[in-house]
Amino acid sequence: MYINGQWIEAKDKKKFSVLNPANGKVIAQVPDGGEAEAIMAVAAADKAFPIWSSRTAYKRSSFLYDAHRLMMEDLESLAQIMTEEQGKPIQSARNEVRYGADFLLWFAEEVKRIYGRTISSSRSDQRFIVIKQPVGVVAAITPWNYPMSMITRKVAPALAAGCTIVLKPAEATPICAMEIFKLLEKAGLPKGVANLVTALDPEPVGRVFTTDKRIQKLTFTGSTDIGKMLAREAAGQMKRISLELGGHAPFIVCKDADPIRAAKGLSLVKFLNTGQACISPNRIYVHSTMKESFLKMLKEKVDLMIPGNGMTPGVKIGPLVNEAEIEKVNSQVKDAVNHGATLVTGGFRIIDNELDKGYFYAPTILDNVTKEMRIYREETFGPVAPVITYEDEDDLLKMANDTDYGLAAYVYTKSYSTAMKFFEGLNFGIIGINDINPTSAAAPFGGMKMSGIGREGAFEGIEEYLETKSGGFSLNT
Ligand code: ADP
C-alpha cells in the first residue's frame, strides 16, 4: 500500500493472493488493508490538501505531464502486467495504457482552464465574483475490467483540481494500481497527495470512505448495486458523489444501414475485453430483412477469434475475471435458449488446450432473443451477442430506451435525420452513430438513470472535483 509517501504492509502483515485469470496461477501477494489503513490514508490526504491545493495550476500541470511521459515510456511493461493480472490480450492492454495515459495528459492541459467569472449586480456598488475551488479529500473506488485507465480517469482530474485522494482498487487487480502509484511517485508526487489502500474485503475501506468526515467526495466505478449502496451511505454526510455504473447498451441497425459494416463493427466492440465493459452492446436490434447477412458476417468474424492467454500472439479473447462470472454468463445463455433463443455459435465454457484452468467462455451469438429472457434486461459482462429481430423501425427508440440503464448506445444508419432522431431521443449518455468507439479522454463519459451520476473526462471531468463559490463584493468599505 502507498500511504503518506511510503510503501507499507498491512498493520497485521496480512496479505492476499492475486491470480492470473488465464491459468489460475498466483502471481503475487499484496497487502490486505482495512479500516486502520484507510483511516491512515485519509489522514495523510487531509494533511496534504492545503499544500497541494495551494500549488499553482501550472505546477500541478507539470506533475501530470511528467506522469504522462513516464506512463508512455513504461507502456510495454505496464501492458504485460495488465495482461497477466486482468487477462486482456496484450494489444488491448497496450491500448488501455495509452487511454489511461491520455487522462494524465488531458488533465495536465485542462488544469490551466479552471475558470471563474464575474456577474453584474443590480446594485451599483456591488460586484459578484465566482471562483472554483477543489472539493477537498477525495475517495475513489475502481473496478478490475479497466484496471489502469479507470484509476487515471479519477486520479488525474482530482489532482489537477487541487484535491488529494485515497484510492481503493478492485481486489482482482491491485498490482495494476500499484504500478500507477509507482509512476506517480517517480513523477514526484508529494507525500500524502495520492494514497493507495489495497484490500481483499472492500467493505471496511468503503465504510471509511462513506463515513469519514474528512472526505468530501466519493467517486466510484463499478456495479449499480454497490454504487447505490455507497450513495446511500455517503448521503449521511452529503458527500459529493460521482458514480459510473452498469449499462445495457442497445446496438441498433436501421433498415437503411449496411449490415456488413454494422456486423464488423459489432464484432469489434462486443468482444472487446471479452465483453467485460459497461459500454458493451447488450441488445442488438436487426431488421428481419437483413438479419441473414448480418449474422453471416458476425459469425465469420467471431469464428476467427482465438481465445487464450492474452500473452499468446493472435489471441483475441481473454478470460473472464472469475468463476462467478462464467456461471452468470452461462446461466443467462441457458435461460435464453430455454425461452426460445437460438445459439448461432458458442454457448459453452472452453476447457480445451488447458484453458480449463482459467475462466474462458466461448464467444457466443444468440439469435431470436426476446423480452422474456433475462439477458434482455440484465447486464451481461461476457462475450455474448444477443440479437433481436425487429419489423417496425418506429418502435425502435421505445424498445432501446426500455431499460433502467442509460450508459451507451450505438446506431447504424445512412440517414442524417434518422441519426439525429436517435441521437436526441436515446436516453443514454454516450452515443455512437455509425461509430463503435465514442469514447476519449476529451469527451464526457457517463450515464443516465441507473448508469450513474456525473461525467468523467472532458472539462466536465474536472468540474466533478470542484466547488463553486460565489462572492458578493460591496465597493463601500
Ligand atoms: P464488479 O461486479 O464489476 O466487480 P463491484 O461493484 O462489485 O463490481 O466492484 C467494483 C469496485 O467496488 C471494486 O473495487 C470492489 O472492491 C468495490 N466494492 C465492492 N463491494 C464494495 C463495498 N461493499 N464497499 C466498497 N467497495 C466495494
Which ligands appear in the coordinates?
adenosine-5'-diphosphate
Number of strands: 24
User: What shape does the CA trace take?
Assistant: globular
CATH architecture of the largest domain: 3-Layer(aba) Sandwich
Instruction: Give the DSSP E fraction (strand runs of 2 or more residues).
Output: 15-25%
**End-to-end Cα distance:** 52 Å
Tell me the structural class: alpha/beta
Radius of gyration in whole Å, from Cα? 23 Å
Q: Which CATH first-tier class of the largest domain would you pick?
A: Alpha Beta
Mean pLDDT: 98
Oligomer status: single chain
Could you list the spans in which at least 5 consecutive residues all have pLDDT below 50? none
CATH homologous superfamily designation of the largest domain: Aldehyde Dehydrogenase, Chain A, domain 1
Task: Output the number of helix runs.
Answer: 14
Main pleated sheet: 7 strands, mixed
